[in-house]
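[recover] target loaded
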């Protein structure tokens, strides 16, 4: 295996945005880069594009696979200098080590657009034209990386995508075996769902701090942050289910009319074409969430400069989670990255608040209490938006909810997936153990 120096700036190898072709092989920048390769790259690239094309109807899976295939092909072609077809199981360890600690030149501070494009003409006579790769795009985002490398859940996803790639290469009769299968278990070990979920349950103190933090953020952004947090927790939805969905036929907008008033009561409707795995559902809306929706709409009315109804109507065509820019807030909603960044900002405010509380307790001489709050503050930095979904499920079941209802609200096709939430909070279990009758 040759180890070529990283003498080039990484660039995206795949496209597929907004119904555009996945392949970039007809672009000058692509041809210039692959001209340095001393093997026939086209067969494996063609299979990878076919795999991604088959996933265009599942946008979230498509983006995940595209990200991981970009990283793998860039590493294999331009770092190692060899074809993906010659990959051996033992070499997967080197790739895992690479994604755990990629070169600084492969990491960006924030997520950037993949390509630079010219805007379409106003008369619609021409579509966007790719000018080249975005010079600021990088395969990895620094701030999303843990000190120990790529998160285990991300590695599970990565191995899934690579295994699918090599399965497709086998079907195309380009190779005979899948080098990912044996290396996957060696690199990941046993992935226990229950253990993963327990690690991702935020405490009540952390949840309370997050709501308090959103109130401390000034103006419309603070109101929107609390609104987003409320929907994530009280509905147990995925971030992608609060955003527009891009499909080959166009864009399915995410509007306020997902809140429906039915004869049975208020529900939040997720259409079949929007839910994960094309599974739609109706989620009951609690009075608490309705109050949060009213609160946000009051702030939204002020920003719009016109009065909105207290709760959404079916005829309303406003974005569910609007931009804060007055020129676009009536027509455009936040995308998933923007929502994640907003949650991250709230978590940072919550962390600082808890650290302030900890310092006050320490000054008052309560070191144990200060240490406990400090640990809660530190734990906030590990939280992602998906943790609200775990918290929703755990609290719903712990409060006596019917597990079948929880399954339906979460959109799980298998009850076993929902059953992993049937456990008491660890702190509660510890307290319960302490109270057990002592037998002398």
């Amino acid at each position: 295996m040759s180890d070529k120096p990283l003498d080039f700036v990484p660039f995206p190898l795949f496209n597929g945005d907004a119904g555009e072709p996945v392949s970039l092989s007809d672009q000058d920048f692509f041809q210039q880069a692959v001209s340095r390769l001393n093997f026939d790259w086209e067969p494996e690239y063609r299979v990878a594009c076919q795999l991604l094309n088959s996933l265009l109807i599942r946008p979230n899976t498509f983006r995940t696979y595209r990200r991981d295939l970009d990283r793998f092909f860039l590493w294999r072609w331009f770092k190692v200098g060899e074809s993906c077809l010659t990959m051996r199981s033992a070499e997967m360890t080197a790739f895992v080590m690479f994604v755990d600690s990629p070169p600084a030149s492969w990491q960006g501070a924030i997520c950037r657009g993949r390509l630079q494009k010219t805007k379409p003409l106003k008369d619609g006579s021409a579509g966007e034209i790719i000018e080249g790769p975005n010079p600021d795009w990088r395969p990895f985002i620094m701030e999303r990386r843990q000190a120990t490398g790529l998160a285990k859940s991300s590695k599970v996803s990565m191995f899934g995508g690579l295994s699918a790639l090599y399965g497709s290469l086998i079907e195309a009769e380009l190779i005979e075996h899948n080098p990912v299968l044996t290396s996957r278990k060696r690199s990941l070990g046993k992935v226990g769902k229950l253990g993963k979920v327990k690690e991702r349950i935020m405490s009540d103190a952390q949840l309370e701090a997050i709501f308090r933090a959103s109130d401390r953020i000034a103006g419309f952004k603070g109101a929107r942050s609390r609104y987003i947090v409320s929907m994530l927790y009280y509905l147990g939805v995925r971030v992608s289910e609060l955003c527009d969905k891009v499909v080959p036929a166009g864009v399915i907008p995410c509007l306020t009319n997902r809140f429906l008033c039915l004869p049975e009561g208020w529900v939040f409707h997720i259409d079949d074409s929007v839910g994960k795995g094309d599974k739609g559902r109706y989620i009951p809306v609690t009075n608490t969430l309705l109050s949060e929706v009213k609160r946000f709409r009051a702030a939204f009315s002020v920003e719009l400069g016109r009065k909105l109804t207290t709760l959404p109507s079916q005829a309303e065509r406003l974005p569910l989670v609007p931009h804060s820019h007055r020129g676009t807030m009536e027509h455009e909603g936040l995308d998933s990255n923007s929502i994640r960044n907003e949650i991250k900002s709230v978590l940072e405010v919550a962390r600082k608040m808890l650290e302030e509380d900890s310092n006050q307790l320490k000054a008052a001489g309560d070191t144990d209490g200060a240490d406990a709050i400090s640990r809660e503050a530190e734990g906030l930095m590990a939280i992602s938006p998906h943790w609200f979904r775990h918290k929703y499920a755990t609290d719903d079941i712990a409060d006596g909810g019917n597990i079948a209802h929880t399954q339906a609200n979460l959109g799980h096709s298998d009850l076993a997936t929902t059953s992993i939430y049937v456990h008491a909070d660890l702190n509660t279990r510890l307290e319960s153990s302490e109270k057990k009758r002592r037998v002398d």
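[recover] notes: The chain has a mean pLDDT of 84.
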